[in-house]
Input
Amino acid sequence: MNIATLTLPILCAIGLWYIERNAEAASLNTKVKVPDNDVTLNQLIDRAALPRANADLHDSVLWVPASNHYNAIRISTSNGPKTVHSNYGFQLLLQRSRCSSSV
Output
């Protein structure tokens, strides 16, 4: 076994790590379009945006999304080598439902 056979796998692993880190860094601090079926986006809407919108509206009925198209974006920032925080922005068009808000 010569030195070339040992160093090639190590160099390949370092090269892949470098490409992976640079691809991750390229998407930091930039707006990235989020698909409407993104799981995190839908959880944010269902668990945070809709309850807050209904609380702010103080209506006798619940308001629900008028469509499932949100024009969402995500901006990810890094606070260290392994910590990434993402902020989502989206447009939420609501319509009145027939469900009472007292339920």
Notes: Confidence is low (pLDDT under 50) at residues 1-23. Residues 3-26 form the longest helix (24 residues).
